[in-house]
Amino acid sequence: MSSHRIALKGPWDYLWTSLTKNQQFQGSAKMPVEYTCLHGNEAGEVQYSRSFHYPRIQIQSPAQQDSTKAPAARFVFVEFSGMRGTGSVEFNSERIGTFDETREQYSFLLPQSPNIFSKLRVLISVNEELLTQKLPAGLFSPVYLRIEE
């Protein structure tokens, strides 16, 4: 089984769900970017979202598949190579996982999507204690789609 990855660099939209007077309510940014570079040193909860084309899924076994067609994905995962905070991940409005401050790297299986255009949404809460650490917060490393063929 082979696999390859596609980076979801951006633009990503962001929306503050715990709005304060010092923050821009919504915007767009090329990701990855450290939380403090985008939002300053203020704790809060931010929703990041990114639309993308969902890869074609293989329904037949490789023996039944037409060999002249390009290979299709069997499984699609979203991989976070560096994410710090607490929150959840949604794919097309369906929660596919949660994360916390105990790790930086997460991988979630994406359900098959009948939609060509799909949306990934990440809700991250960054508290004041996390901001005082020298470690980065938010989506500070690339996010990938890993496609298993």
Provide structural commentary.
- This is Beta-galactosidase.
- The chain has 149 residues and is mostly beta strands.
- The protein has a single domain (3-54, 71-148), classed as Galactose-binding domain-like (Jelly Rolls, Sandwich).
- It has helices spanning 35-39, 128-132, and strands at 3-7, 12-16, 26-29, 44-53, 75-80, 83-84, 86-91, 94-99, 106-110, 117-126, 138-139, 143-148.
- A six-stranded antiparallel β-sheet has the order 3-2-4-10-7-8. Strands 1-12-5-9 form a four-stranded antiparallel β-sheet, with no helix packed on it.
- It starts with a strand and ends with a strand.
Average pLDDT reading: 86
* SS elements, strand count: 12
Shape: globular
Question: Which residue ranges are poorly predicted, with pLDDT under 50 across at least 5 consecutive positions?
Answer: none
Instruction: Tell me the name of the CATH class.
Output: Mainly Beta
User: Could you tell me the radius of gyration in angstroms?
Assistant: 17 Å
SSE run: EEEHEEEEEEEHEE
The major pleated sheet works out as: 6 strands, antiparallel
What topology, given as strand order, has the largest sheet?
3-2-4-10-7-8
How many structural domains in the coordinates? 1
CATH architectural type: Sandwich
CATH topology: Jelly Rolls
How much of the sequence is in beta strands? 35-45%
Q: How far from one another are the termini?
A: 6 Å
The CATH H-level superfamily is Galactose-binding domain-like
- Class per helix and strand makeup: mainly beta
Enumerate how many helices there are, as a single number.
Answer: 2
